[in-house]
């Protein structure tokens, strides 16, 4: 248990659906991250939030929309996804400008 | 830009064998280096880290030494167990270059047979 939880753990959705992934951290951190892990590529950083402000968007398609309402919660809103978006989506948190990131267990997403 | 290269897997060993997973990096300045481990069905966990040259990180019998002269951070364990079967990721963060975001290698899958 790393102090970072993600729900749901598994999600199957059609290309026309809208769904959201949720991440919550109980560590008092002020930076949160979304990563994508797929079989064919290394871990890809998608978004970074520091003190609820988005500080990085790694050229992620607009069908992925992050939201960080407070320093403990991070969402990833999904709409009109493609089958190639099927992957494990990992959330992480850290103290801003500190080295160590703590990861959640991930959401396994399958797009049909 | 900054990058991490680690040996391709999968690596298959017998229990009690010696493990080495090679990792080299390219970065400006003085990055911090990490090994993360991902057990089946789980997220990543920090295994060990080193923040400056010649530092040795260690945890659960694993060790890695930050070698600036060879830009390497190889992971070693003297006697692996079946429970060590997982995917291992080498990573760096570099406030001088990549603004502190983690940059990962591709991962090396380790399978340990009884």
- Elements of chain A, N to C (H/E): EEEEEEEEEEE
Total number of helical segments of chain B?
0
- Estimate the helix proportion of chain B, in percent: under 10%
What average pLDDT do the residues of chain B reach?
92
Counted beta strands of chain A: 11
Amino-to-carboxy terminus distance of chain A? 31 Å
Task: Put the structure in a nutshell.
Chain A is mainly β and 112 residues long.
Structural account:
The complex is a heterodimer of chains A (112) and B (114). The model of chain A has no long low-confidence stretch (mean pLDDT 90). Chain A has strands at 4-7, 10-13, 18-25, 31-37, 44-50, 53-57, 64-70, 73-79, 87-94, 102-103, 107-111. In chain A, the strands form 2 sheets. In chain A, strands 2, 4, 5, 6, 9, 10 and 11 form a 7-stranded mixed beta sheet that branches. In chain A, strands 1-3-8-7 form a 4-stranded antiparallel beta sheet, with no helix packed on it. Chain A contains no helices and 11 strands. Chain B is an all-beta fold and 114 residues long. In chain B, strands 2, 5, 6, 10, 11 and 12 form a 6-stranded mixed beta sheet that branches. In chain B, strands 3-9-8-7 form a 4-stranded antiparallel beta sheet, with no helix packed on it. A two-stranded antiparallel ribbon of chain B has the order 1-4. Chain B is globular, with a radius of gyration of 14 Å. The model of chain B has no long low-confidence stretch (mean pLDDT 92). Classes of the chains: A mainly beta (112), B mainly beta (114).
Features of the shown structure:
heterodimer, A: 112 residues, mainly beta, 7-stranded mixed beta sheet, 4-stranded antiparallel beta sheet, 57% strand, B: 114 residues, 6-stranded mixed beta sheet, globular
